[in-house]
Amino acid sequence: MSTSTDFEYRPTTRTGRIANYVDTRVGGSSIVKEFGRKIFPDHWTFMFGEVALYSFVILLLSGTFLALWYDPTMTSMEYKGNYVPMQGVEMSGAYASTLNISFDIRGGLFLRQLHHWSALLFAMAVAVHMLRVFFTGAFRRPRELNWVVGCVLFILAIVAGFSGYSLPDDVLSGNGLRIADAIAKSVPVVGTYISMFMFGGEFPGHAIIGRLYIVHVLIIPALILMMIVIHLFMVVVHKHTQFAGPGRTENNVVGYPVGPVYAAKAGGFFFIVFGILAAIAGSTTINAIWNYGPYDPSPVQAGSQPDWYMGFSDGGLRLMPGSWPFSWEINLFGLAIPLAILLPLIPMAGMFGAMFAWPWIERWVTRDNRVHNILDRPRNAPFRTAVGAAGVTFYAVQMIAASGDLIATHFHVAVNDVIYWLRALYFVGPILAFIIARRFCLALQRKDREIVLHGRESGRIQALPHGEFVEVHEPLDEYRRYKLVDFQDHQVQPARANAKGKITAGEKVRGRLSHLFFEDRVSPVTPAELEAAHGHHEPEPVAVGAGSHASQIEK
Amino acid sequence: MGDHRDGNPHKSGAVVTSDGAELDQFPDPGLPPHRPRMTDVDSKAAKRAEHQVVLLFLLSVIGSVIFFVAYFGIRVDGPLYDAVNTEPTAQLRLQNLLLGLGIALGMFGIGIGVVHWARTLMPDHEIVEQRHDLRPESERAEAQSILNTIYDESGVKRRPLLRNTLIGAAVLMPLPFVGLLKDLGPTDLKVLRHSMWDEGVRLVRDPSGTPIKASDVTLGSAFHVIPENLTSLGHEEGYLNEKAKSVVLLMRLDPDKVNVSEGRKDWNVDGIFAYSKVCTHVGCPIALYEQHTHHLLCPCHQSTFDLTNECEVIFGPASRPLPQLPITVDSDGYLVARSDFHEPVGPTYSQRDFAVKDMQDEAN
């Protein structure tokens, strides 16, 4: 550029000179040109991903502060700090330094609580963002790989949470590690060695806190950061999805430019998320480790339960009967296999596997390999919404089971009964959720049809000449109407023979799934139908809001 | 409803289809007309919005000031959570609250201010941008020809030996780093077998370390017990590791109400039974004792063990009874162990059944 200097731009202002200096050395103009007015569609559900990103940034900030004072050592010491109930107690350096952060560092308690609340919100926002992406079909081509990146981020969020939760080395987190130790040991043959490697020998040993520390502050955050970069890079490449609506097509993006509107809204939202978390962290105690005491293998509190994102795994363990109708510990070739631990892990792994693979499962069943930049309203994809509801129910039943004892004590019922009911729901719940969610979707779709065909209820009652009273229905304007009719419904794709004229077993399964998903469906209203709905009854006077109530009455 | 089929004779009646839906769609009416906001048409409203934003930014400044007032103004002097002097604890709570609220206000002021600015004063015209093909065919063809050139110039095709030896070397090269992980932990599983219990080791209270006379253990009482030799073990010598295997619950039951199997007749002292406190499910301490039902309950996953039947599992996810510690009394009348447990305590691991066999052979 500067070699062929026919013209060298000379800025006149100081800011201009600095900008020009940087621009001629890093090529900033092209970045501004690419991103400065890039369009982002607006919808409130698109904020969940932002919440996840922002709470992660807050985690990095608060975590860095905590690392300045936290001491990841299991070397034992006598506590000499400010907190009276623990004075003189023998404890690990990790626990002592966590007490110091809470009680001796000014603002330390706020930072600890900010970090913990942010972690809970991070995992929550990732989960809700995933649900949004799932239920609106945003994972479809070309975004399948980004969905996978998102799934990896969800798992990383769980690992980050668990590893951080264990660092204070208190009784509660120590019991969590004890459970992790037992789950590792349950793996046939190699499990015992995995456990010995994790803990540097027997549980609890003197190694685990230092190892979890490096996992928690370096390995996992680095992986999460890397995944976030890939995730956002792909969002830029794909451009954001948008909901259907007038003027919005598969080939355009309608929304606000990054500069200034979107940047201001998204940037401002970071401060709002931070503000909410700061208010919670200042006012609401979380993980009061000073009440639990340093880790000791003997005590444990009744009603102990993990942070919410680990709840499903703990609940799965609680639901499995260990000795009914027979002992689920078997001996295979001399090896003890604790099926009571391993069996509940298999459906959990299956659920995560299905989650990763869903974009391809859906493509296979629907035979839909088109590019989708327009999102589905969840009701307009009843099959997917139903599958999602079943998955959420399966997850929720296990998460609720993790609080089975608290439900029992709060509602004065037997803990055994709570578990029996949840065991039944573990199997029946997802099926019921599938059926109910699909019925809801179909009903909502029919309601949409109703509104498009006959207009919306105006609340005005009109007396007809022959004495009948009817409610006047107002027709929709074309923009509102287009929002309700612009979607594609899938149809049953029966099993088809392949090139050799044979219907393979896999194709039969696909055909059956296609029937299950799409035999009940509601199509969008067509202009002809609207015409017909208006046509076969006497026209209303426009002045009172021409509707189509007559067809309502006919029914 | 109108002319569309409502219901399917085979199915549930939810089928609603339109004939020729694909051919006959509503035309896209295009973007709805832009509706101006108050601030677009009324300069007073715009001025008002501007003032609101400024006010919010000033609130943020106040929030930061509150933070520093709380940070320097509130003194937390003296012991915390002290039963006598509760003043410093209250000060700490107040300080924590105000630090949080100060930062929160500082953040909210900026955040809500900027968003309000964007929503009221920045243009709200929606802009349409076209999407482009993610991979235009021309670019694909060009990329492919570049890759072919790279492939050819590298000579991989003409000199396969280069490629094959490189793959071999690259596969082997990371293995040393895997090997370096071997010393993460010892691989001798024998440590998992034995606890510090042994013949003649006294049962002492956890954590005081005082020995227990049989007469101390009244009907219905429960003791949290550790072996006496554990109390002299330092933390650096593996105190927690040993404690994790040796914690025991001690209870007296009515001997007439307890089923005792043949080999365990002399394992209890007049109805005083000692059981491992470590759950056989995933290793939580069994901390709850229901006196009237004689059940032990694990607070983590609610595994329930029946004391009257040698801690057989009657509910929950545990698959094995709790190991029993054989006990007797010594010449001074204190409770002592007859031996170690006859099986490894705690959760199952693959090699456990070999250990059980060896330990029972040892015991007999």
Automatic annotation (TrEMBL), chain A:
Cofactor: heme
Enzyme class: translocase
Gene Ontology process terms (BP): respiratory electron transport chain
Sections of the chain in a coiled coil: none
Enzyme nomenclature, EC number: 7.1.1.8
Localization per record: Cell membrane
Basic and acidic residues biased stretches: 531-540
Keyword Nucleotide-binding attached: no
Disordered, as annotated region: 531-555
Residues spanning the membrane: 51-70, 114-135, 147-167, 213-237, 269-290, 332-361, 381-398, 418-437
Gene3D superfamilies per UniProt: Cytochrome Bc1 Complex, Chain C (1.20.810.10)
Reactions catalysed: a quinol + 2 Fe(III)-[cytochrome c](out) = a quinone + 2 Fe(II)-[cytochrome c](out) + 2 H(+)(out)
Keyword Transmembrane helix: yes
Domain Cytochrome b/b6 N-terminal region profile: 18-244
UniProt-recorded name of the protein: Cytochrome bc1 complex cytochrome b subunit
Organism: Kocuria tytonis
